[in-house]
Amino acid sequence: MMEAINGFRLLEEIGRGAFGIVYRARCEADGKPVPRDAEVAVKILHGHLPKAPDGERIVHRFHREAKLATKLSHPHVVRVHEDGAEGDQHYLIMELAQGESLASYLRKSGIEPPPTKTSQKIPTTPSQSGPDGETPAAPPVHNLPIPEAIEILRQVAGVLQAAQDVGLIHR
Asked: What is the pLDDT of residues 26-45, one digit of tens each?
């Protein structure tokens, strides 16, 4: 793990995705978009992506979407403070979200969120019959109360509308 990037000390990894790794970090420099000692999230683009055959396009999209995200203001979206590059490391500095993720909340409610990694396959065909010719029993269904599900959907729809309003599409 890197120790710091552009005046931000990386403290611990808090997330990982197809495009990069997100760290909890602390600001150690003056003149940054957050006060010294403030904690932020730093997303660093995976180092192999800029070197890929379409790396220039990936880097351009990373920074273009970061610039659009700085215009996005919504209570359910972390604020992007800045983006940049230090050497061959491309990064975003973002507000550090506190609290529980939606996925964690759903799990606590007895609902397993859908897979998010591209390596996980979502079944597209019906279940095969078991050896006795019977269809296997479906796993138990856990439902959120309808008002709770509507509230979550309302918040997600608001975020999608705010993103659309600034021309941002999350991939």
From this structure: 999 999 999 999 999 999 99
